[in-house]
Amino acid sequence: MFFEKLTKLYCKLCPRECNIDRNRYAGLCKTKNTLEIASYNLHFGEEPPISGKNGSGTIFFAGCNLSCIYCQNFPISQLKSAFKVISEEELADIMIQLQSKGAHNINLVTPSHFIHLICKSIDLAKEKGLTIPIAYNTSSYDKPEVIEYLSNYIDIYMADLKYTDNNISKKLSGIDDYFDIATKAILAMHKTKGSLKTQNGIATKGLIIRHLVLPNLIDNTKQALKWIVDNLPDTPISLMFQYFPAYKAFNDSTINRKVNYEEYLEIIDFMNGLNLKGFIQEFNHEYCN
Ligand code: SF4
């Protein structure tokens, strides 16, 4: 019922509000009204409380409601070079399969544009015995009212805070209101689930905020860290330095290189002054040009 008003006839499921009939046409997310997945597996590269010892049961959805010119998953999100159309029942079975393999959680990667269908799968999977937490791994370009509705479906939020400057989001991701939308969505996630909670070192519920550091945009990172400490000081952050130019980033003089060691040190120094908690990816000199 809740999703009907956002998807029936004209799609307004996410903040892009394409207003198109997704039964007939693909929206800006490049998808229609059927589930499309690129892959699913146990993933060991997430933050320690998410991957744990057994892995995170990760499901990669095709398409995306952003159009990031540097997307490191661009074959899946932007080009949709390989994907499979599946039913809600099949997605529920995949969730059960991942749980049987020992996954600590179901990790929905880029789910925003399919969430109305994914909720049906979660209901079906729960009827079949799904008990592990469900994680929503998102760019945070989500409607706050959708996040509030998801309270009964989602346990863990792995939420990006990509930009604090809407001019940068326009240039790099094709949207001119990212900061306004994403911060409202993140506050809604925190309101419904609180900050990340663990049991025996494994996440059970709550919010973790992720930020990928981009070259030449160190002030953007500092502002993102500052926003978190000012607004959600109890929430752990995951700071990532693995950026490499991909997709169309080679043509952009701001982001056509990796983050360098001086930038890394400047951010660590700034972060230490803020007393934030969380996970900082170690700098690997192979990341550096
Ligand atoms: S989910 Fe896709 S079609 Fe619907 S509003 Fe968002 S981008 Fe447009």
Give an account of the 3D structure:
The protein has 289 residues and is an alpha/beta fold. The chain has one domain (27-287): Alpha-Beta Barrel (TIM Barrel), CATH 3.20.20.70. The chain has ten helices and ten strands. Strands 1, 2, 3, 4, 5, 6, 7, 8, 9 and 10 form a ten-stranded mixed beta sheet that branches. Helix 4 packs across helix 5. The longest helix is centred in the middle third of the chain and has 16 residues, at 178-193. The chain is globular. The model has no long low-confidence stretch (mean pLDDT 95).
List the topology elements:
Layout: H1 4-7, E1 35-43, H2 48-51, E2 56-61, H3 74-77, E3 84-86, H4 88-100, E4 106-109, H5 115-127, E5 134-138, H6 144-149, E6 156-160, H7 166-173, H8 178-193, E7 197-199, E8 202-212, H9 218-231, E9 237-240, H10 261-274, E10 278-280
Parallel strand pairs: 2-4, 4-5, 5-6, 6-8, 8-9, 9-10
Antiparallel strand pairs: 1-2, 1-3, 7-8
Bound molecules: iron/sulfur cluster.
Iron/sulfur cluster binds at residues 11-14, 16-18, 22, 27-29, 65, 113.
